[in-house]
TrEMBL record:
A GO term for molecular function: transmembrane transporter activity
Domain Major facilitator superfamily (MFS) profile: 11-508
Lineage: superkingdom: Bacteria
Subcellular location: Cell membrane
Gene3D superfamilies in the cross-refs: MFS general substrate transporter like domains
Protein's UniProt name: Sugar transport protein
Principal localisation: membrane
Organism: Sphingobacterium allocomposti
Family annotation (Pfam families): Sugar_tr
Bilayer disposition of the protein: Multi-pass membrane protein
PROSITE patterns, A to Z: MFS, SUGAR_TRANSPORT_2
Keywords: Cell membrane, Membrane, Sugar transport, Transmembrane, Transmembrane helix, Transport
Annotated InterPro entries: MFS_dom (IPR020846), MFS_sugar_transport-like (IPR005828), MFS_trans_sf (IPR036259), Sugar_transporter_CS (IPR005829)
């Protein structure tokens, strides 16, 4: 028994490390989306560039179901281990090459095109990785404990995002702002190749899962996994139920609590980038152990109501949570500290010429500090500001919070992470138990990656569009408009899951 548990921990460790690195690779792009929008897209329209970056980010999610089909088929034909070894190398190579791709100013249109292709390769790789890792761990797990053991795999997605934020923060701390903006943003992408190599060395010594080996020795593996998974009406019914009754809602909650929250802090609350990353990182670190708690809870109570509870809580509380977040940096509602503001003007050399930087700082009674910075190009000869038709002045506002506001924002993000753990902790065991061994990799991968890749992956772009459109139309609560997408999707999923899911259906 002790040897079995030791073997199981080795399986968990090897599978989790590789999956964590793949999520790290996948999420660096999202974590650096604001910076990447200035590197790979035209700089003359920042809003359009940012939306284009989000669309490229979403493209990686859209192709994940195709990766699920392609690699899921391979996994059911040749085995779990070898398939997710291939996905690991594909992901690592694509991520490394994004870090090496020249910017828009160097190669023009080819820059976003190359990045889009590499992003699509990332999506295909992740589409094959997760299903393989979750199936592999589940098929090593004792019956009745799959929720607990597979929940360790569930921590890797959130922890991968956490690691990406840590690497980015450390890179920013080590380098100057100008160095990071010039070339330092490439470092997190390039570093991934080293982590992939270490994971490869660990994974290559793993054995195939016992359930798949048994099915293969008995001649019970599928000859055509795609046809048996989706051409069989009985099995297709469970594929659709897994998607619309669980994975769809889980996907939008996952991305709302992490990526939408991060984007909201930076682009709506105007929070300092490093501070926003740190706050999200703290909340992720505090919340990650609850994946295992919720996985264990699903072993005791069943997968259905643990997941649906997370969806219901999100539906009811998302708008109040984001209203509270917005008010933490709502400057018009705050009282300024008289006489504590400062201002400064300096001229620095940029690649395009000299730039005058005027910085005005205001302090507020609750500890909030607001820095308004304007960047004005100046003549190399006279030092006078250039006219608008030559080079345009740009400005940005950065908010820094402290004290109870800081704690409150961590708490509000943490609550959203708890919702994620409720829906995401049990999902791997739920999906694995719905399908028989011979078509499990294929059957479980598709609904998971459609739910997360399509419904979840489109969330940043769709929600940003809804909020932008509401702002253009003059809505006073425009900053909450983007939440309608996850709320509606979660509500539909909750109703379908509550009515049609009876229990986890084990087909061992």
């Amino acid at each position: 028994m002790q040897d079995d548990k030791k073997t199981l921990w080795k399986v968990i460790g090897a599978s989790s490390l590789g999956t964590l690195i793949e999520w790290y690779d996948f999420f660096i792009f999202g974590s650096l989306s604001i910076v990447l929008s200035t590197k790979f897209f035209p700089a003359d329209n920042p809003t359009a560039s940012f939306l284009s970056t989000l669309a490229t980010f979403a493209a990686g999610f859209v192709v994940r179901p195709f990766g699920a089909l392609f690699f899921g088929r391979l996994g059911d034909l040749i085995g779990r281990k070898y398939t997710f070894m291939v996905t690991l190398m594909l992901m690592g190579g694509a991520t490394f090459l994004i870090g090496c791709t020249p910017g828009y100013e160097t190669i023009g249109f080819f820059a976003p095109l190359i990045v889009l292709i590499l992003r699509l390769l990332q999506g295909l790789a992740l589409g094959g990785e997760y299903g393989g890792a979750a199936t592999y761990v589940a098929e090593h797990s004792p019956v009745g404990q799959r929720g607990y053991w597979t929940s360790w795999i569930q921590t890797t997605a959130t922890f991968g995002l956490f690691i990406s934020l840590v690497v980015i923060l450390l890179t920013r701390l080590i380098l100057s702002e100008q160095q990071f903006d010039s070339w330092g943003w490439r470092v997190p992408f390039i570093l991934s190749i080293l982590m992939v190599y270490v994971s490869y060395l660990i994974r290559k010594n793993m054995d195939e899962s016992p359930e798949f080996k048994k099915a293969k020795s008995e001649g019970k593996t599928a000859t055509n996994p795609l046809k048996e998974s989706f051409g069989n009406r009985y099995n297709l019914k469970f594929v659709l139920l897994a998607l619309f009754g669980a994975a769809m809602g889980q996907g939008v909650i996952w991305y709302t609590g992490q990526f939408y929250a991060m984007s909201f802090m930076k682009t709506v609350m105007l929070l300092d980038t490093d501070q926003a990353d740190l706050i999200l990182g703290i909340a992720l670190l505090l919340g990650t152990p609850f994946f295992v708690v919720c996985g264990r809870l699903s072993d005791k109570l069943g997968r259905k109501w643990v997941m649906l509870a997370g969806m219901l809580l999100a539906i009811l509380t998302y708008r109040p949570i984001y209203e509270a977040m917005y008010q933490l940096t709502n400057i018009p509602a705050k009282t300024e500290v008289a006489g504590k503001g400062t201002s400064s003007v300096s001229v620095v050399d940029r690649e395009s010429g000299k730039v005058e930087i005027a910085e005005m700082t205001r302090l507020y009674t609750d500890g909030t500090r607001v820095v308004h910075t304007t960047f004005t190009p100046v003549s190399q000869d006279t030092g006078d500001p250039l006219k608008d038709d030559q080079l345009q002045t740009t400005a940005k506002t950065t908010v820094h919070i402290s004290g109870k506001n800081y704690v409150a924002l961590v708490a509000l993000i943490f609550i959203q992470i708890l919702y994620i753990t409720l829906v995401y902790g049990p999902i791997a065991a739920f999906l694995v138990e719905m399908f028989p061994v011979k078509i499990r990799y294929t059957s479980m991968s598709l609904p998971y990656h459609v739910g997360n890749g399509i419904f979840g992956g489109l969330l940043p772009a769709v929600s940003t569009y809804l909020a932008t459109n509401a702002k253009i139309n003059g809505a006073s609560d425009f900053y909450l408009a983007g939440l309608w997408y996850p709320i509606i999707i979660s509500a539909v999923c909750f109703i379908i899951g509550a009515v049609y899911i009876t229990s986890s259906k084990s087909q061992n």
